[in-house]
Amino acid sequence: MTTYRRVGAAIFLAVVCSACGVPADERARALDPAAAPYRVVTTDPATPRTGTHRMVVFLVRDDAVQPVPRRIAIAPTPEEVLRAVAAGPSPQEQAQGYRSALSVDPDAAVARVAGSIVSVDLPGTTEASNRSDAVLGFAQVVLSLTSLPNVTGVTFESDGQPLQVPRADGSLSTGPLLRVDYRELIDPT
Fold first, then answer.
1. Per-residue burial over 140-167, b = 16 or more CB atoms within 10 Å of its CB, e = otherwise
2. Which of 154, 84, 171 shows the shortest CA–CA distance to 119?
3. Whole-number Å distance between alpha carbons of 163 and 182
4. Which of 17, 55, 117, 155 is the most exposed place for a label (fewest CB within 10 A)?
């Protein structure tokens, strides 16, 4: 009987474990925001609800950078993300205390994409400031661009020449800047 009990217990355990409560669907389905884990699905009224693609833009709030999801009509590209970052917060986002620390020229553009590194051209800039607002501004650009799945780093240049850019720790770099270079500036809330 001991063998039968072991086999029975094993079958019982297999049945219980296979009934985990997650339904198997053939296609993706919309998730009810009320049923989602905390902060997985935003119900923030300031988040634009237009478009079918998601883009993340980092904005400044209380001297830290925070991710702000947006919906856009086209799949986000480095150029689209840079335009959104340069445009700054929407009026609704401004009302919630978001601002931009960027002093980016509207002519700033993605110079090139080489593999997973995006180069941003800041025309006419001779050197980057190491002020805290400048650091937050570069953090906005780097964190927003590296939110794209195929971008791991960002370099900055001016008129084709590498530009030294401040990291969160105050050191300057001409090499690709990564998310980790600004992680201490990200507000965890």
1. bbbbbbbbbeebebbbbbbeeeebebbb
2. 154
3. 17
4. 17
Predicted model pTM: 0.70
Using CA atoms, how far residue 91 sits from 73, 74, 88, 94, 96, in Å, is 20, 22, 9, 5, 9
Q: In this predicted model, what pLDDT tens digit does every residue of 56-93 receive, in sequence order? A: 999 999 889 999 999 888 889 999 998 888 888 999 99
Q: Which residue has the tokens 């985990």?
A: 20
Q: Which neighbouring-strand residues pair with 158?
A: 161
C-alpha 72/C-alpha 48 separation (Å) is: 8
Distance, CA of 18 to chain centre: 35
Report CA-CA distances (Å) from 84 to 59, 90, 146, 172.
10, 10, 14, 25
Token readout for 146 is 């590296």
Tokens linked to 33: 């925001």
The pair of structure tokens assigned to 160 is: 């084709």
